Amino acid sequence: MKSVLCPGTFDPITLGHEDIIRRTAKIFDKVYVAVLENIDKKTVFTAEERIALAKKIFEDEPKIEVITSKGLLVDIAKNLGVCAIVKGVRDATDFSYEQKLFLINDSLMPGLETLISPSFGDQTFISSTAVRDIGKYGGDLSKYVNAKIIDTVSAKLKG
Questions:
Q1: Is-catalytic flag, 128?
Q2: Is 22 a catalytic residue?
Q3: Which of 55, 63, 90, 136 is an active site residue?
Q4: Is residue 69 part of a domain?
């Protein structure tokens, strides 16, 4: 069974994230969506809220499992026994950043593959930051987050 890891902060999880994860699930037997803490980021949504949002989106997807973990990504990957990390990229800036992370991860765990999945069309401009900014001012989030979580996300962002 081939399993992969789709890590992210997901603050909040967007339609762009969801697209990458669903496309990945078409290829692999198991996709672990790892909702991670990033010590360099102050999140708007708590870890518990971010996990709950992701679980709600993928509740009917047996191939997709939402998890949380702390520590190095390579250690999480090793503990899960995944064959690769899957990262979505919107543009050249994202690619450059992910390439650097791949080199670091490869130095820590040689052989762990990183697969880059590009965003398509309307997904290329979606970011969690944009969602937070639009939601903070009461904007329509329907083009940015899954309908299952839109009310929860909107309420949190309006504060």
A1: yes
A2: no
A3: 90
A4: yes
Global pTM reads 0.94
3-class DSSP state for residue 87?
strand
- Cβ atoms of residues 145 and 13 within 8 Å: yes
Residue 81's region, left for phi above 0, alpha for psi from -120 to 50, else beta, is left
Among the options 128, 132, 154, 156, which is catalytic?
128
**What's the domain count of the chain?**
1
What is the per-residue pLDDT across 10-49, written as a single tens digit (0 to 9) for each? Answer: 999 999 999 999 999 999 999 999 999 878 789 999 999 9
Residue 112 lies in domain: 3-125
- Please list, residue by residue across 60-69, b when 16 or more beta carbons sit within 10 angstroms of its beta carbon and e when fewer do: eeeebbbbeb
Residue 41's Cβ-side half-sphere holds a number of Cα atoms within 13 Å equal to 15
Q: Confirm whether 78 is a catalytic residue.
A: no
- Whose CA is closest to 22, among 53, 54, 45, 47? 54
Q: 143 lies in a domain?
A: no
Torsions phi, psi for 29 (to 5 deg): -70, -35
